[in-house]
Specification:
347 residues, alpha+beta, Beta-Lactamase, 2 domains, rod-shaped
Length: 347
């Protein structure tokens, strides 16, 4: 059991690493860069549209030396969000018009300014405060718009936060689902314990074949095998029947301890063989006060008593009843003669 558990845990850890690595790559090296690129593209498209709409009036104002119209157009452009400043440079980098009048007549001799007046083509350059969009509007003038990247940063920060939550949620959900899937293949320690105990209790005769893969199904099958072996041994001389019976009870109790549901096992005389804490909590009784007692001494619920009575009357048939908002299942196991030997109730 432990070797399988260790292997399954290693599989879960390996899968978790693969899942987290894949999601991290997809989100942070593919999705987020694409989104940032799209945001920049949207910003470029917006400023391109603004430039195209403004150029005819700006060209006309430049030809007519109409500084008032130039300034008016620039002021209109500045009303658009994400635009910090707008200005026009001549071929020497001198400011012809600027939204800040203090900049008029200055010569911009930085590397980017020299490049945009020399290249004479539409360009977008990264600058410390954001981006600089430039486009020649005449043979001797270049129109420049400074764009803020603050909006892009805000959008990316919000997007990164959402991606972080999504990454965490998908990772945890994926790992949990895979964990449940892996451990469902090993179906609690009961399935493995059943095989081991069968080999010890019944000498390894036969093989446990479980058609119904729930806990009570495993327990019933193992009990049947024990009963079969008990019947064979009881017909053989020199067998200590009481010892075999006592060992059978111990094995059943050990198996029942590994069942996650509430469970109660009673003998053919309706006396308690085993009860776990979950079943005690359901019945509101103490385990110390129930051992070996008749069920009528500690079970007060009429529906549960009726369920047990129906089960005892039809050996081998599974019964189910909803009691106090819980599904209670019961089945009675008998021998080949049709005699009631043991009743199992799961809650």
């Amino acid at each position: 059991m432990f070797s399988k558990l260790n292997i399954s845990l290693k599989i879960v850890i390996f899968f978790s690493l693969i899942l987290v690595s894949t999601l991290f790559f997809l989100f942070y090296y593919y999705f987020l860069p694409m989104q940032e690129k799209q945001l920049k593209r949207n910003l470029y498209d917006k400023v391109k549209t603004v430039s195209d709409l403004s150029q005819p009036l700006i060209n006309k104002a430049l030809k007519n030396n109409d500084d008032i119209t130039l300034l008016s157009q620039i002021e209109e452009i500045l009303k658009i969000k994400d635009i910090n400043s707008a200005y026009i440079l001549d071929n020497k980098g001198r400011v012809i018009t600027h939204n800040q009048t203090s900049e008029w007549g200055k010569i911009y001799d930085d590397e980017i300014s020299r490049k945009i007046v020399e290249k004479k083509k539409e360009m977008v350059n990264k600058i410390p405060s954001g981006y600089l969009y430039s486009i020649p509007i005449t043979s001797s003038a270049t129109f420049c718009i400074r764009l803020s990247e603050q909006k892009i940063k805000e959008n990316m920060n919000a997007l990164e936060k959402n991606v972080g939550y999504t990454f965490l949620s998908i990772s945890v959900t994926g790992i949990l689902l895979f964990y449940l899937f892996i451990f469902s293949q090993f179906k609690t320690p009961l399935k493995n314990l059943g095989h081991v105990l069968k080999a010890v209790a019944v000498g390894g005769i036969g093989k446990i074949e479980i058609k119904k893969h729930d806990e009570i199904g495993v327990l019933i099958k193992l009990v049947n095998d024990i009963i079969e072996k008990f019947e064979q041994d009881s017909s053989t001389s020199g067998v200590n029947v009481n010892e075999v019976k006592n060992n059978t009870k111990i094995i059943i109790e050990e198996i029942a301890k590994n069942i996650s549901s509430g469970i109660m096992i009673i003998d053919s005389e309706n006396r308690l063989i085993h009860i776990n804490q979950k079943a005690c909590d359901f019945l509101s009784v103490s385990r110390d006060n129930t051992s070996g007692k008749h069920i009528l001494d500690f079970i007060q619920d009429a529906l549960l008593i009726d369920l047990i009575n129906k089960t005892v009357k039809e050996i081998g048939k599974n019964f189910e009843e909803k009691i106090n908002d819980r599904i209670v299942k019961a089945v009675t196991v008998g021998n080949k003669k049709g005699e009631n030997l043991i009743t199992i109730i799961t809650i």
